[in-house]
Design brief:
This is Polysaccharide biosynthesis protein. This protein is mainly α. Helices cover 84% and strands 0% of the residues. It has one domain. The model has no long low-confidence stretch (mean pLDDT 83).
């Protein structure tokens, strides 16, 4: 792939990734606000306690095949066909196992009402399996615009249905139906946008070379889901649905922020880095550029979200969610580092080192689990558990850097040079926004807007005075498209 072609494809992918994730997160935000006002923490907590099982089931049916197919140099119909039938088979089997395990899950949480809800929510697994191969085709071929349209359409339709059901008193069943509808629409759109179609000539032999790579991603993805949802499980076991609901509300807002950036990077990072993985020097140059762009967006966005949490929660979902405010403030600090860690993991996968990716994630999960269990034994609060989770996310960035140095020569000094200017500028800008709001005072909307406008203006001004290359390239690209 020529240099100019690679640059253009990366820029185009990032642009449509931004459109996709920006529009999707905005829709999540709007529908989340409406549902948050209609439903309470306990109702969100009921679905939240089942989320980890659904995500693990989806990881099983996907089995790391999407990334594995993206790394195949010469792809064939037989590769996609084998993945389609394998994913469908695993998805159906996973659903049947979880269907019969629903009473055990309900007993674990001491919530009998979870039995029918679990069996309904777990339908997401076989539904998602129908679109795994088509999604892999779109991902491999950088069809980011098509993925963007799929997600936007799915969010609109599922959000409207969820609100309608909640309005008519279906409580947490409305949330569950919203999630299922989203997957159904995404799957249908994936079939529409992908020209590839499965055939009934089933041959699983092409999976053998893929499985050596994808099996490690499968284990890693399951570990990732445990890592991301561990606190929901712990809170559901040792606290109550309301505690789970408050944590999930806080984490949902946090995820809305960092997933915009993570999704944008994820749509292009691995395919682009995989295409140049045999050129160490070029890989380092391209990776550092993407890293700076990621930091340029992540630090101001997530630190900014942290300082407006109080106003945001009260203005949107109301006082009944006050318990989520301190949790969200902490989570957003750690959320600034999530896109960076995800970018490093994409680099490792693009190098074909799924075993290292797997070991790294498992180590992080085990460490987090041990620390949380120790805190429970010591009578630690929910806030202490969140602090540990945030600190672990920040520290783990340097673990990833150690592996990046081995593969592309990224040194700690280079990492800090790429990140610190954006991190420090974001801290200063957010501090200025917060201080200005304290001086002006006034009602919640006034302090909310003051923080945002002052912080954004300060960040932009410092970047402009420092002649930040990333800022100028973004402006040039947007003007060019215009």
């Amino acid at each position: 792939m020529p240099e100019q072609s690679l640059k253009e494809k990366t820029a185009k992918g990032l642009f449509w990734g931004a459109v996709n994730n920006g529009a999707q997160q905005l829709l999540v935000l709007v529908f989340g606000i409406i549902l948050g006002r209609m439903l309470g923490p306990a109702e969100y907590g009921m679905v939240g306690m089942l989320t980890v099982f659904t995500l693990i089931g989806n990881s099983l049916q996907e089995s790391g095949f999407r990334a594995a197919l993206a790394n195949v140099k010469h792809i064939r119909h037989e590769d996609y066909n084998a993945v389609f039938w394998c994913s469908l088979g695993i998805g159906v089997c996973a659903y049947l196992v979880l269907f019969f395990c629903a009473p055990l899950i309900a007993r674990f949480y001491h919530e009998p009402a979870l039995i029918p809800l679990a069996r309904y929510c777990f339908l997401a697994i076989p539904i998602a399996s129908l679109g795994t191969a088509q999604g892999a085709y779109l991902f491999r071929n950088l069809k980011v615009r098509q993925q963007a349209l799929s997600g936007i359409i799915a969010h609109i339709l599922s959000g409207c249905l969820g609100i309608t059901l909640a309005y008519h008193g279906f409580s947490y069943w409305g949330i569950a139906t919203q999630s299922l509808t989203y997957l159904i629409v995404v799957t249908i759109c994936s079939w529409y946008f992908s020209p590839w179609r499965p055939t009934f000539r089933i041959d699983f032999r092409p999976l053998k070379p893929l499985f050596a790579f994808s099996s490690k991603l499968l284990i890693t993805n399951i570990a990732n889901q445990l890592n991301n949802n561990l606190l929901s499980v712990i809170l559901g076991k040792y606290f109550n649905p309301q505690a789970v609901g408050n944590y999930n509300q806080a984490n949902k807002w946090n995820a809305t922020g960092h997933q915009f950036i993570t999704g944008m990077m994820g749509s292009v990072a691995q395919p682009v880095l995989a295409s140049i993985s045999d050129d160490r020097e070029r890989s380092l140059r391209v990776f550092r550029k993407i890293l700076r762009f990621c930091a340029f967006l992540a630090f101001p966005a997530m630190f900014g979200l942290s300082i407006v949490t109080h106003e945001l929660i009260l203005l949107t979902v109301g006082e009944k969610w006050t318990g989520s405010i301190p949790l969200m403030q902490l989570l957003c600090i750690g959320g600034a580092f999530v896109p960076l860690n995800t970018l490093f993991s994409s680099l490792i996968i693009s190098q074909g080192k799924s075993d290292i990716y797997m070991g790294n994630i498992i180590a992080q999960v085990v460490l987090q689990l041990l620390t949380v269990l120790v805190l429970i034994q010591l009578g630690g609060s929910i806030y202490a558990m969140v602090v540990v989770n945030v600190c672990l996310n920040i520290v783990w960035l340097f673990v990833w850097q150690g592996f990046a140095r081995r593969f592309i020569g990224l040194k700690v000094k280079a990492l800090l040079l790429d990140l610190l200017p954006f991190l420090l500028t974001a801290l200063v800008a957010c501090a200025a926004g917060w201080s200005a709001s304290q001086g002006i005072g006034g009602p919640l909307p006034v302090t909310f807007l003051t923080k945002i406008l002052i912080a954004a203006a300060c960040y932009f001004l410092v970047m402009k005075l420092a002649r930040a290359e990333i800022l100028q390239e973004c402006i040039d690209y947007l003007l060019k498209r215009k």
